[in-house]
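Hi R.,

Here's the chain you asked about this morning:
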Amino acid sequence: MRCYEELINYLSCALILAGLGHLIHHRKTQTSYGRHMRLSPLTRMVPAKLAWFLQEIPAFLFPLLLMFTSHKPSSMGKTLLLGTFCVHYFQRTFIYSLRTRGKPFPLGVMVAGGFFCTVNGFLQGHYLLHCAQFDDEWSADYRYKTGGLFEYVSGANYLGEIVEWFGYAMATWALPTLSFALFSLCFIGPRAYYHHRFYKEKFKDYPKLRKALIPFIL
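And the predicted structure, written out as tokens:
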């Protein structure tokens, strides 16, 4: 399969705009699921385990499908980077979804999440397999992070995921992966803030120095 560069660029820009649109639209209230649920009598609900499974699995299956149908040999860089993406969504699809004890999801939120994962799974998979170029020196540099961040921020899991995807974008140095990183920041960054506010309101002894997302700053 050839690289559809124009389509990839359009999808990447659309993802960035969607992330910014979500950030603006939800600057005062969060998406209605989990602890921020706002229900109406007409809202159709889906069990949390099933909802997480169905909405996350496209991001796992699309890159695998593209990988197995590709007739071109992949470099180590492409395989490693796409592998990290697939491992993340394997965990989200087959481990997190089965272990979560969250509240039922609104059907609309699940469908929107599934649409995003479908588009993003194709975007990341097609770009890395058919458009990206990595030379033999790419894998000579390594980065990793450690530490108990929950001592410093309420949204340590969100911070970890944001850092993960910006690192992914830096490693690939490409617009599609940058668009995904920016969308992630715009979508889950505010959620860390609302989690932080929720904890401060609910627990009177919540640590005063703990921040929402960025240690010592925000």
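The two ends are 44 Å apart (CA to CA).

Let me know if you need anything else.
M.
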